[in-house]
Specification:
Length: 429
């Protein structure tokens, strides 16, 4: 695993744990990533299990390190007790020096003695009965001022010994399990072995695992809860349709970057060996902003290699994000100075699709097509006879079509992109 700060590493570990739990789930169970309750919710027709992941390679275990996630679970248990729901809670945590279990005594002692202001303000009104209606009203505010917090803290200081838990904590503890987590590489290996029960070990390691990682990261970021639901069969069905490694910022951060990029490059070799292919590139605004000074050199180098045989090769299409109009104009002027004519589809200031598509007398007239994403649709790309669509940077575009292949290359810089499309033989480290 590449070096990453502790926050990112925690996310990466959570994605791995999510994959593993999906693979271990039963056919009738639905796994919700970034669940309503915890990081992972597993729901069957008769039960609900919630899992919170914590991964800290550089921290020793302390009760204060795990109190917050346990309190979140206890708060949910208080709500469910009123509704009669049955839930199992799992805290799955890795520390440099870990423990096998968390004792109820150590947790209770912490609650009785803590002066942690954040813990007091955030959780105490949710697990204790608050007799003062004014304080309870303040406590339930979604946003609290400093004065609000001071009033709450003063109340707790005066009434601490009078507070009564809203539920039987012993009953909650029967539903709670602490599991010492495995080290990152060990969990990764278990996932690969699970995939190896379905496909070959090589396919499990080189294709299924990185693509599962990419999918889980993508699903976890969905705003709608229903879009974050997945089943074991759905995951395996999806992976069976993927023919090459999916490149996302998460897979490149978590896995062997060089190995992933080399694999993707090898897969793309056949695409870039064809002279007859029409290729379109969609550059995200974020990618363009980070690579303003190298976009034009990339396009020039691309044209010099892939549009030097005008009778054999096809003009590429370069599509800029809507927030990059100034950069687009700069690139157009630079191409003009290099005597590279461009079809922008513009008649005056208006984009005309037929002019952009322009099937007649095109070969001798221009070196490439170039416009912004707001002007483009899958229908226009189809009429331009696009064979391959490459989306560069984070995917925010919906240009699906059965008439061309789509490759999402969520890379950070043009040097990496040049390597993937065979403009460079060496990968910059």
């Amino acid at each position: 695993m590449r070096q990453a700060d502790s926050t990112i590493k925690g996310y990466l570990y959570q994605f791995n744990k999510s994959i593993y739990e999906i693979l271990q789930s039963k056919d009738d169970e639905i796994v919700t990533l970034e669940g309503v309750i915890e990081d992972i919710d597993i729901q069957s027709p008769t039960s609900l299990t919630t899992i919170q992941c914590k991964y800290h390679e550089d921290k020793k275990y302390q009760i204060s390190s795990v109190v917050a996630p346990i309190l979140e679970m206890l708060c949910h248990y208080c709500e469910c007790s009123v509704l009669g729901k049955s839930v199992s809670y799992i805290l799955y945590a890795y520390y440099e020096e870990n423990v096998d279990t968390v004792s109820l005594e150590s947790f209770s002692n912490f609650l009785e003695s803590t002066n942690d202001k954040e813990i007091l303000v955030k959780y105490f009104h949710r697990i204790y009965t608050i007799a003062d209606s004014e304080i309870l009203k303040i406590a339930n505010k979604p946003q609290k001022s400093k004065d609000d917090k001071d009033k709450m803290l003063a109340y707790y200081k005066t009434n601490r010994n009078k507070l009564v838990l809203r539920t039987d904590i012993l009953e909650f503890w029967k539903c709670f399990t602490y599991i010492p987590a495995e080290q990152f590489d060990a969990l990764q290996e278990k996932i690969i072995q699970s995939f190896a029960e379905v496909v070959s070990v090589d396919t499990a390691e080189a294709l299924y695992y990185p693509n599962a990682f990419s999918l889980v990261a993508t699903i976890s970021a969905k705003p709608n809860k229903d879009e974050r639901n997945i089943t074991k069969n759905a995951l395996l069905d999806y992976l069976s349709t993927q023919k090459s490694v999916l490149l996302t910022k998460w897979t490149l951060e978590a896995l062997d970057r060089v190995k992933l990029l080399r694999s993707k490059r090898d897969f793309l070799k056949a695409y870039f060996s064809s002279n007859s292919s029409v290729r379109a590139f969609v550059f995200s605004d974020d990618f363009l902003e980070k690579n303003q000074g190298t976009i034009f050199p990339f396009i020039i180098q691309y044209l010099d290699k892939y549009f030097k045989k005008r009778k054999l090769q096809k003009q590429p299409i370069f599509i800029f994000g809507d927030g990059s109009s100034t950069l687009l104009q700069t690139v157009l002027v630079s191409l003009y100075k290099y005597q590279k004519s461009v079809n922008t589809g513009l008649i005056g200031n208006e984009f005309i699709a037929d002019s952009f598509i322009c099937d007649t007398y095109c070969a001798a007239d221009f070196a490439c097509k170039m416009t912004q994403i707001k002007n483009i649709s899958s229908e226009i790309l189809e009429k331009c006879h696009v064979n391959q669509l490459y989306i560069i940077g984070e995917n925010r575009y919906s240009l699906e079509s059965s008439n061309y292949s789509i490759e999402h290359l969520d890379v950070a810089d043009t040097e990496t992109l040049k390597y993937l499309v065979w403009l460079s033989m060496r990968l910059e480290e």
